[in-house]
Write a structure and sequence with these properties.
Blueprint lengths: L2 H16 L3 H15 L6 H6 L14 E6 L5 E2 L5 E2 L6 H12 L3 H4 L24 H8 L4 E8 L16 E5 L3 H14 L4 E4 L6 E8 H15 L5 H9 L18 E7 L7 H4 L4 E8 L4 H14 L4 E6 L10 E4 L5 E5 L2 H13 L1
Parallel strand pairs: 1-4, 1-6, 4-5, 6-9, 9-10
Antiparallel strand pairs: 2-3, 7-8, 10-11, 11-12
Helix pairs in contact: 1-2, 4-12
Length: 356
């Protein structure tokens, strides 16, 4: 079956099904697409195929998009938390763009990304945004039926008109573990066409807190009992599980001058996405600080490959300032598909990937 025949078959299936049952439409479309893409299910194929497979899996009207945004807040006690400076502004811009449509002025400022047809053309330059193909894509883009927006209570929230407000489902999370659980739950409750993972997930969370004086006394007592110097692993065992750890179920005292807070790693949420959303378009982010473009592209590309993402938005904190958010969209083969200057341009570009 060639591309034209396959597209006609898929459109016929969708049209017939819409007349009878919307839910059945989603199931039938996904079943047909699964059959067509059985041999091309890698992230690289999704990011480089224009034959109706891969990226075409997110082409049906009424898409469901999941966006993660803002920081995570990692608990130390009932009051203290570890967080970061993320505001959720980029996630808001993407959600607002998906639900309210494109701004033609902004669209002219960003490249229309035409996924390459084969591996040899993955490094081809994006097409001219003023070309007829680009114009027809913008004018015929399908609706987004739902944006599921995961963020923290204090983060910025998307502002959308009342007539599309029912398509925005804001769900509050707190920690990296909360975000992981929420994404897993979404993967089991509904079909998702795209996940845009912009949240600045904290790397560490509070594991326990202890006064320095108490842990020092415990080490000294153990050493006196052993009547010999303690081995490194014995000292480490005390540090990891001190008998004098503070009760952090409530608010700890604010008068302890030498409070030690031990941190543990949070889950790498990005690593779960492909397993939970095997057919979705996946866009992630990577932020470094004051590195060369070569290093930024290299790190972002490795992140994309390791986690089977379709695209990574590469950012350098050292190049950001008020009103500017320089970023590069990295695709297969470390290709720089777009260079963008602010959240609005980034949102327009991400929307074009999702909507086709």
């Amino acid at each position: 079956m060639d591309a034209a025949q396959m597209e006609a078959t898929m459109m016929g299936t969708v049209t017939d099904t819409v007349k009878t049952d919307t839910t059945k439409m989603e199931e039938t479309t996904m079943e047909d697409m699964t059959k067509e893409t059985a041999s091309t299910d890698s992230a690289d194929k999704r990011a480089t195929d224009t034959s109706g497979e891969g990226l075409g899996a997110a082409q049906a009207a009424g898409k469901t998009v999941v966006i993660t945004a803002g920081p995570t807040n990692e608990r130390i006690d009932a009051v203290m938390k570890i967080t970061n400076m993320a505001t959720g502004a980029l996630g808001c811009a993407i959600a607002e763009r998906l639900l309210t449509g494109h701004d033609s002025t902004v669209q002219e400022q960003v490249p229309h990304i035409q996924p390459a047809q084969n591996a040899s053309s993955q490094n081809a330059m994006p097409s001219d945004p003023a070309s007829p193909a680009s114009a027809s894509t913008a004018s015929s883009e399908p609706d987004v039926s739902k944006v599921i927006y995961l963020t923290t209570k204090m983060s910025l929230k998307p502002q959308v008109p009342a007539d599309v407000a029912d398509r925005l489902d804001i769900r509050l999370i707190e920690s990296a573990d909360d975000l992981k659980d929420a994404l897993h739950a979404i993967s089991r409750e509904t079909h998702v066409d795209a996940v845009v993972h912009t949240a600045a997930v904290g790397d560490y969370k509070g594991r326990l807190s202890v006064r320095a004086e108490d842990v020092a006394a415990e080490i000294a007592d153990r050493q006196a009992t052993a009547d010999r110097p303690l081995a490194q692993d014995e000292i480490l065992a005390i540090l990891l599980n001190p008998r004098s750890a503070q009760d952090d179920r409530g608010k700890m005292s604010s008068t302890m001058p030498h409070l030690l807070v031990e941190l543990g790693l949070t889950p790498k949420v990005i690593g779960f996405l492909r397993g939970w959303f095997p057919d979705a378009l996946l866009v992630g982010c990577k932020l470094l600080d004051n590195v060369s473009e070569e290093e930024l592209v290299s790190v972002a590309s490795r992140l994309r490959q390791k986690n089977r993402m379709d695209y990574i938005l590469a950012n350098d904190l050292g190049r950001m300032d008020e009103g500017r958010h320089p970023a590069m969209l990295i695709g297969s083969g470390s290709a720089i598909l777009a260079r963008l200057d602010n959240d609005t341009q980034i949102a327009e570009t991400i929307a074009s990937l999702i909507l086709g």
